[in-house]
Amino acid sequence: MVTLPSIPATTLIYNDWYPAMRSDLLRGKKMQAVMLMGIPMVLGRREDGRIFAMRDACPHRGIPLSDGWFDGKNVTCKYHGWAFEPCSGQCTAIPSLTSQDTLDPNRIFAGAFPCEERDGYAWVYVPEPGSGRVRAGADLVPVPELPKFSERFRSAWLTADLPCNVDHGIIGLMDPAHGPFVHQSWWWRRAASIHEKEKHFEPIPQGFRMSAHAPSGNSAPYKLLGVYGEPITTTIDFVLPNRRYETIRCGPKWFSSLTTVTPTTANACRIDVYAAWNVFYHVPFVLPVAKFFGKRFVEQDRLTMVQQAEGLRWEPSLMLIDDADRPAKWYFALKQARLDGQPERHPMSGPVTLRWRS
What we know:
This is Aromatic ring-hydroxylating dioxygenase subunit alpha. The protein is α+β, with helices and mostly antiparallel strands.
């Protein structure tokens, strides 16, 4: 048993991609203001279809750029009319300048972040504070994308705000023992179904993998795949800074999901779930049914985080125990290694077998 590692809530992992919002909300000349990593940002879509993310503050007097105008090419501040090309942040016009002024507007930049669209999300690359502007064409880590295993598939997404810092959100995401309690229901599992489990884990770059295994027999959704008459396997990966990938295979049928827990501020985060599948592809109403139960599942997690936040207000002593909490210990060790500038330092020296009851 160990006490919970004391990584401050404000210690965030930079130099990586985070989902800022659903990209289908970026349409026309409308801009959207969001908080990401404690940074106010404004996002939009240029007339050529490319999405952008800027710091929501004019470098002149600090007024939010989201209060200004966007014509499809430039973002214009409402205070003095300064205009900026949104993908680079380069200033294109300062209306107050006269023919006698020597200031070159093109040498001024508003804050802008690399922004890419994947799986219906606007992903923003957030560099280390004070590291300077990330220039176009910079060699960045790849933008995350959900693996898919056929050309035809259905997909859905869910999101919920969590009133906790990102560390609590993530260790809740990877916690294997809460299912029969938080998600206790007729359509998922019952507390009486708890039994001992044994899973094999292996190290992967910047994370760890629960190796391919037969899914839990006490989870009702997995049982539905039995109609295909093929062996069912599940693989789960956790990858820094905040990503949980799950892939379920049943012969040619598959289901995959990417769940992220993204810090919006130092003490709040957002969970996003994007899933794709080709199971029951031709079954009517499968998409609304999946979203209905998926929303209830995520809401159970959200409510638990709300209740936990009430308890954490009083700063209780916390602990991590035995095998069920070992993934959380690995997460904290991986995070600390990356914060120390030693991402190659891994808490796992090789494959590990863990056992717990759930």
